[in-house]
Specification:
Length: 98
């Protein structure tokens, strides 16, 4: 694993997923074959790709403007993120909304 390759752990998913720092969370999950709801093509409007950051929230980008709006509308907690709006900067552990 190189210095830029990081690890994503998904609660309930057997294998850790390697990614390159700066990758989008939703794209990383899709590429690994992890099932996650999504219906707005990653535009941040549907909120179906909501995940919970269990560890490593400091390794994610700050919420985007559209994500801030959705989080306020829906009362997201600090650890709730939209996968389509989340850039992975370092290793993270998540749980996918069921």
């Amino acid at each position: 694993m190189s210095d830029t390759t990081k690890t994503l752990h998904v609660k309930g998913f057997f294998s850790p997923i390697e990614f390159i720092a700066g990758d989008n969370l939703l794209n990383t999950l899709n590429a690994a074959g992890v099932s996650i709801a999504q219906s707005c093509e990653g535009n941040g409007t549907c909120t179906t790709c909501r995940v919970f950051i269990l560890k490593g929230s400091e390794n994610c980008n700050a919420r985007t403007e559209i994500e801030i709006e959705r989080a306020e509308e829906r009362g997201f907690k600090d650890n709730e993120r939209l996968a389509c709006q989340t850039e992975l900067l370092g290793s993270v552990e998540i749980e996918i909304e069921k």
